[in-house]
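Case 279 in the screening queue. Each case pairs one protein sequence with one candidate compound; here the compound is hypoxanthine. For every case the pipeline is the same: read the inputs, emit a complex structure as tokens, and attach any notable structural observations.

Predict complex for case 279.
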Amino acid sequence: MDITAAADTLRARLGDRPTPDIAVVLGSGLGSVASAVMDPVIVPFIDVPGFPAAGVAGHAGQYVYGTMGSCPVLIQAGRFHHYEGHAMDVVAAPVRVAAKLGVRVLVLTNAAGGVNPELEPGDVVLVEDHLNLMFRSPLIGPTREGEERFPDMSEPYDAALRKAALAAAEELGVPLRTGVYAALTGPSYETAAEVRMLGRLGADVVGMSTVPEVIVARALGLRCLAFSMVTNKGTGLSPEPLSHVDVQEVGARSGRVVGDLIQAVIASLPEGAQSRGAK
Ligand code: HPA
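Case 279 output:
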């Protein structure tokens, strides 16, 4: 995929608007967060050279550029999943494009199942660390321009941004748990035995995204923050079988909380330096 061509297309659509400092990736059912930006410029993925049309119901598949408070942000509403058959470099392409545009902070959201039995549908979890149980990396292959070959992963989720998120949650009076996100390829949901295994491995939530994007972001030096919205209890922790429709419904209902948190975090970062020297 030609990242420069994709970034040039997006840049041209933004005209002389300021470069976005922050990109926000919206997962299943979280599309409403995009409505919080002012003066939106919408660029469907289909208009970006090299990007396939997003396939999963509930994933709109478009960039929404706009301002949140005083900060220019690039919202990525929808993402490419490995389980749709997209190669890992397609999954990671929107992050590479955002970085090429000048984004230095990446906020990711996802829908996830609760592995920790204390988690209930509607809970929001601030991701502290992850388990890459996809056993694949978007960095495999020749090292790309501006990317580290062997990026350090001791702090994939930026400590200062996590602190800001916890402070924002307290300020807003919304409960925010912290936990470890396990990424599996899907698309089948886990078996009950797999959910028990994930718990023993140290996971609190499980999903099918985010980790490839974070790996590329770290290779590029972007600071990451991720929120998991618990849409269901993991298989075996509730008598209900899982359905994608239920996952989307909970996402839509609780998306506002995540949107409010993201806005508050962005607003709390130093003026004009949302992405630079905010530590
Ligand atoms: N497992 C994996 N991915 C998910 C789940 C789940 O239970 N819920 C939402 N995304």
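Case 279 observations:
- The pocket of hypoxanthine is lined by residues 111-113, 189-190, 206-208, 231-232, 234, 242, 247 (CB under 6 Å).
- DSSP finds six helices and nine strands in the chain.
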